[in-house]
Amino acid sequence: MTTPIEPGAAVTGAYSRPLLQVEDLRMYFPITSGTLISRHVGDVKAVDGVSLSIKKGETVGLVGESGCGKSTVGRTILRLYEPTGGRIVVDGQDITHAGGKQLRAARRQMQMIFQDPYASLNPRMTAAGIVSEPLEIHGVGEPRARRERVRDLLGIVGLDPDYGDRFPHEFSGGQRQRIGVARALALHPDLIVADEPISALDVSIQAQIINLLEKLQDEFKLTYLFIAHDLSVVRHISDRIAVMYLGRLVEVTTARALYERPLHPYTVALLSAVPIPDPVIENRRQRIILAGDVPSPSNPPSGCHFHTRCWLRTRLGNPERCVAEAPVLRTMGTGHEVACHFAEEVDGSPEQGLQVKGAGPAPTSATGGGSGSGSAAAGPVPGGAAVSAVNPPAAPPARSSRKRERS
Ligand SMILES: Nc1ncnc2c1ncn2[C@@H]1O[C@H](COP(=O)(O)OP(=O)(O)O)[C@@H](O)[C@H]1O
Ligand code: SF4
Ligand SMILES: [Mg+2]
Questions:
Q1: Residue 396 lies in a domain
Q2: Are 166 and 126 in contact (CB under 8 A)?
Q3: How far apart are CA 281 and CA 70, in angstroms?
Q4: Do residues 243 and 166 both lie within one domain?
Q5: Same structural domain for residues 160 and 308?
Q6: Residues whose Cβ atom is located within 5 A of ion ligand 3
Q7: pLDDT, tens digit, for every residue of 202-236?
Q8: Residue 79 and residue 184 share a domain
């Protein structure tokens, strides 16, 4: 799938020049068979034609179920893998196949924060050693200056600089993630790929790390690609959100548009798992349960990869086009891209309305005095889609909106 680089919708507060441009990125992992002579028998198509651009100072959330290729996108952008195809341009420099000096320079500009602060920190190194390591690898400063910089960094992320000589196991989960953040900041990067940075943390700690990342973004003019497996986490931190399914982007738009007017059936299903902080709407809302797991990227379904699990296709009587033809990202409204042949059927549908606060069949009065359309929320989704009245997972950490926090 080849789509042109899309500069994205205008985003308040973000700078206009793209820092990162990714075009038709592909990352295939070869599958081999045979013990003595290994033969190439197929590929795991972890990333299969992703195009995305991120402006300076912008936060783009990348969301999708486990195994859909999010981490591989992040790692390939950082050139931890050699891309199978496509282009990666950072600050005007094509680094797709860069090596040597150019790759080292690019790596200084881009850093990663990992999901699991327990696994990603070397248990045999002190906190100061971990934060100092990138400075040493890149030969930045004299030992004394590096020590000072490490103390500064520990302070910036909210740790006591005197704790630098402690080992990872002496810190809590949240503190360990702060060490990971300090390490990522050491080389003054422009772009940070945060790969599910709060998924492994207690709910009570998650909001603290999100707030820290937002504070650092303002202070150091950082650009984030923020990876998450559900839509509850990225809502307030993201300017735009890209939804990924089985190696491809299926919807890209502003965070606001995604929550107010989701246009891809997969996004609608993901949104149905996000709790709404209004008990009246929340109680009558029903979840769209996607049957089974994400299919294997080594043998993806034909046409639209989502066709084996799509509630809209079922409702439309299983049109052949979904099986025969892969939908490309197309624009439906300013900066709103969606890859579904029948996205117009999602717009204004009961399923879309059910997931959007204040829209669709919800009553106008929170006291429950309203009559009429409320019953539609409790009724079956047309077309016999897999819907169950399972309650959504526990609410995410309560956070005020990003704009309000920044004031
Ligand atoms: N190094 C690798 N070698 C082979 N397959 C891989 C490798 N890394 C990831 N994959 C496969 O690529 C797919 C996408 O993985 P990943 O990017 O980790 O997904 P996500 O981060 O969305 O959970 C998965 O099927 C995974 O098993
Ligand atoms: S193209 Fe067909 S299968 Fe794919 S999301 Fe749209 S309706 Fe569903
Ligand atoms: Mg991952």
A1: no
A2: yes
A3: 31
A4: yes
A5: no
A6: 71
A7: 988 999 999 999 999 999 999 999 999 989 889 88
A8: yes
